[in-house]
Design brief:
There is one protein chain. The chain is an alpha/beta fold. The protein is 23% helix and 25% strand. The chain contains twelve helices and 17 strands. The chain has helices at residues 7-10, 16-22, 34-38, 59-68, 108-118, 141-157, 183-193, 231-237, 244-248, 261-264, 298-308, 329-345; strands at residues 26-30, 73-79, 122-127, 163-166, 198-201, 207-208, 223-225, 270-272, 275-280, 313-318, 355-358, 379-380, 388-407, 415-424, 427-434, 441-460, 465-471. The strands form three sheets. Strands 5-4-3-2-1-10-9-6 form an eight-stranded parallel sheet, sandwiched between helices. Strands 11, 12, 13, 14, 15, 16 and 17 form a seven-stranded antiparallel sheet that branches. β3 (122-127), α6 and β4 form a beta-alpha-beta unit. The chain starts with 6 loop residues before the first helix and ends with a strand. Bound molecules: beta-L-fucopyranose. Beta-L-fucopyranose binds at residues 41, 167, 169, 238-239, 278, 285.
Amino acid sequence: MLREADRRLVEIVPTERQLKHQQMEFYGFIHFSVNTFTDREWGDGTESPEVFAPQSLDARQWARAARDGQMKGLILTCKHHDGFCLWPSRFTEHSVAASPYRNGKGDIVKELSDACREEGLAFGIYLSPWDRHSPLYGSGKKYDDYFVNQLEELLTGYGEIFAVWFDGACGEGSDGKRQVYDWKRYYEVVRRLQPGACISVCGPDVRWCGNEAGDTRASEWSVVPARTADTEKIADKSQQADETAFRERRIQAQDMDLGSREILKSEKDLIWYPAEVNTSIRPGWFYHASEDNQVKPLAELIHIYEHSVGGNATFLLNIPPDRKGMVHEQDVRRLHELGEYIRNTYDRNLAKEAEITCDSALEGYGPENLTEDSCEACLRTWEGVTACDIVLEWKKAVKVRRVVLKENLRYSQRIESFEIQTWRNGTFHTIYRGTTVGYKHIAAVDEPETTRLRVRILDARVSLALAFIGIY
Ligand code: FUL
């Protein structure tokens, strides 16, 4: 049934750069700085560069571990809140150039960006706007100039950048001064120098999911009120002090629903602003030897992966290198297990072996398009047809553990509710109920044997544009 109010919702679609970013699905965070050596989470900016002394740093090892875990890119904390730069910035002395690392000749941004390219990974940068070392912090334009200079170094010296991650954390300078960031200017610099890069968190392209514990929303919408991208509000909700409790906090109840019809109906301005789920493989963002035995269990990582990538979000998992400059063997092993799980689980799409029919697809946009995983071909229905049945039938019974659905985001995000059913004793039984689909929904089911599976789309906005079905 067509609801007139839905029309303006489906007009909101991703930019090409947002679409490309969403297809990155799963990528890694590298937190590495003086904190690694002082055993802290937030440095205060007084650390001597002398402490920064990794003995056997191997960026190739980080990139290989990430690739083995099925990640498609890495984002490096080029400068964290402590202000220490992992590249020899021309605008400060507080960098690797003043450290014992490679006798002051090192450049970790270069090492990692090269390693990423060699391993076929995309490379992204994290540059903390909050800088506890710089005496310019809190001075207004002077600090902005400093920040922009550093941004320019990073955006011009290291090849293609896929993401620029601006943190919303805290913001107080050493003497209590606060900097009012010139976000507009920062964004212009990124757009000018790296037009393909998404600006995440305190930025217009990718939305912080609202917690650091890996918690996800059951219904994650990418069409949300424009005010969700307000940097002041993002900062308010970000970490205010260095505390474990914050890292463990889950999404607050009042932030669970960002994009239902109910929420959007009174909102004037809407935007496409997809979520990214960020968490660390260990309790902390930085490496602490005391956490070597607290690497997240495989089951937990699989859960987060399937509820983020498979819950209409991207997944940014932090893997912090240790003091030697290596990703610890426990983390390497866990990444390998996760990668192996993903490779094995999603290897053979049983939908390709089924006959697929749909009761209400448009001509030229039929169910035969559903096994090709792309935004080019898709299944569509007439305007006003907001429900449909897609039936898959096999000659020989199959075991089903995962059902993957994807919408064609070029037509926005439409599905509101669906069910998955299988055939038992002559009738269909519901084995799964879901709400949103968006980029991707992974449904975990446990169906021993079936010859038929039915995906029932029960409600959608205006019409349907389904890109893909995967049965595993
Ligand atoms: C937070 C920071 O304060 C943490 O140290 C970490 O970088 C995390 C990804 O973002 O806001």
